[in-house]
Design a protein that fits this description.
aminopeptidase; metalloaminopeptidase activity; EC 3.4.11.1; five-stranded mixed β-sheet; Leucine Aminopeptidase, subunit E, domain 1; 2 domains; alpha/beta; 16 helices; nine-stranded mixed β-sheet; Aminopeptidase
Length: 463
């Protein structure tokens, strides 16, 4: 799906007046009598999502009004202008209202994202109201960000029947071809030969054509090095610790970390950031068969650390561990993992926030500032060292699922940190799913944290 701005040379451009609660009465009093009476008779109020198309004397659209709400309402709603985009009829609109400079790019992006719909299996459409890119904004940049987000959404929304490990590989290879990147893949038994034992173990029970694999994409030849690692569990049954039906229904999204790093990579490469990018995706299906790994098994990781499996449904950290250890061997300037890793993170912060773990002060400062600026909220969680003993079972170096149920997201992050030891490292425990429709964010797969990271990269990597 292509999400682009309308051409400034479009025919029949409709001026778009954005009105907030504070200035509405003053604006109304300054209008000609006929326009003021029409607005009053229509019952239009400047609340978020309210729109009004005002005709001229011939009945053609003369101006469109869009509610922007109060400052308090905007603080509780991301992309408030996008709420108007979905209500306006098909047409080309041009903003005539000066929005705050800090909001303008975000609102323009939200308008583009309001045009997104997942239409692979049924006819679905997003907003058909097109916007001319507001003056002063970098249209190609915003379109590149929208394209990356659309890619992430499409990948997550696609069911496992059409998004297995082999399909995730196909998506990565297609992306690499678009941008002149290289993409190598280690598949099946070759994972054991090349020392990725835990990726192989988690995925070995799947059908042969859905064999486990490690996808390794590289782009750029100069500049600081950034390695993105995304969890690519294309479906998670829970393995022999089988999930109940109610918990399995959304498991097509368990590759949301992979989808998000591919979306972020799309943005980075389209914008030609001066970095050397590497994307590592352990792509598996956690299936059930006679060859499934078992509770109580002890696995030896690429790094040499042994892991006791106390729950086969805690498989994401196992495949990420081998990928992180592999990425750390090159000592990149920054390594970031993204994964739909724990239900504990959702209990802690809900579906909107992207909880993350990092002890690097400059990274934290850059991401926190960027997240607020681009309306992509994050929340820092602690690498709490006293909990390290919770992931040390005694019979092996590490426990993949400590008993007791406490601090599940933190213990998972501490587990991953063991495999990124010595690296400048951050981990995002994302949800990857919007449970109910919101402006510019329809129900379904959604990117989390990628736009905040993109905006922060110049500071993170000193570009």
């Amino acid at each position: 799906m292509t999400l682009t701005f309308a051409s400034p040379e479009s025919d029949s451009i409709i001026p778009l007046q954005v009105l907030d609660s504070a200035g509405f009465d003053q604006w109304k009093e300054a209008q000609p009598d006929a326009l003021r009476r029409f607005v009053e008779a229509s019952g239009f109020k400047p609340t978020i999502g309210q729109t009004l198309l005002v005709p001229d004397s011939d009945g053609a659209p003369m101006i469109a009004l869009a509610g922007f709400g109060s400052e308090q309402a905007r603080a509780r709603s991301r992309f408030p202008l996008a709420a108007a985009a979905t209500k306006l009829p098909k047409g080309t609109y041009a903003l005539t209202t000066p929005l705050p400079a800090g909001d303008l790019e975000t609102e323009a992006l939200g308008w583009l994202l309001a045009g997104y719909a997942f239409d692979r299996y049924a006819k679905n459409t997003g907003s058909s109201a097109k916007l001319i890119c507001p003056e002063g904004l970098d249209a190609p940049r915003i379109e590149a960000i929208a394209a990356g987000e659309a890619l992430t959404r499409d990948l997550i929304n696609t069911p496992a029947s059409d998004m297995g490990p082999q399909d995730l590989e196909k998506a990565a290879r297609a992306q690499a071809a678009r941008f002149g990147a290289t993409c190598t893949v280690v598949t099946g038994a070759a994972l054991l030969e090349q020392n990725f034992p835990m990726i192989h173990t988690v995925g070995r029970a799947a059908a042969p054509h859905r064999a486990p694999r490690l996808i390794d994409m590289r782009w750029g030849t100069s500049g600081p090095t950034l390695t993105l690692v995304g969890k690519g569990v294309c479906f998670d049954t829970g393995g022999l610790n089988l999930k109940p039906g109610g918990s399995m229904g959304l498991m097509k999204k368990d590759m949301g970390g992979a989808a998000t790093v591919l979306g972020l990579a799309e943005m980075i490469m389209a914008l030609r950031l001066p970095i050397q990018l590497r994307v590592l995706i352990p792509a598996v299906e956690n299936a059930v068969s006679g060859d499934s790994f078992r509770p109580g098994d002890i696995l030896t990781s690429r790094k040499g650390l042994t892991v006791e499996v106390n729950n086969t449904d805690a498989e994401g950290r196992l495949v990420l561990a081998d990928a992180l250890a592999f990425g750390a061997e090159e000592n990149p300037d920054m390594m970031i993992s993204m994964a739909t890793l724990t239900g504990a993170a959702r209990v802690a912060v809900g579906p909107d926030l992207s909880p993350y773990y990092c002890d690097d002060g400059s990274f934290v400062s850059a991401v926190e500032t960027a997240a607020q600026a681009v309306a992509d909220p994050v929340w820092r969680m602690p690498f709490w060292d006293p909990y390290e003993k919770m992931i040390e079972p005694g019979i092996a170096d590490l426990d993949n699922a400590p008993s007791g149920g406490f601090a599940g997201s933190i213990t998972a992050a501490l587990f991953l940190r063991r495999f990124a030891e010595g690296q400048r490292y951050a981990h995002f425990d994302i949800y990857g799913w919007n449970p109910s429709a919101a402006p510019a964010r329809p129900k379904g797969g959604v990117g989390m944290g990628a736009r905040a990271l993109l905006a922060a990269l110049p500071d993170i990597l000193s570009l």
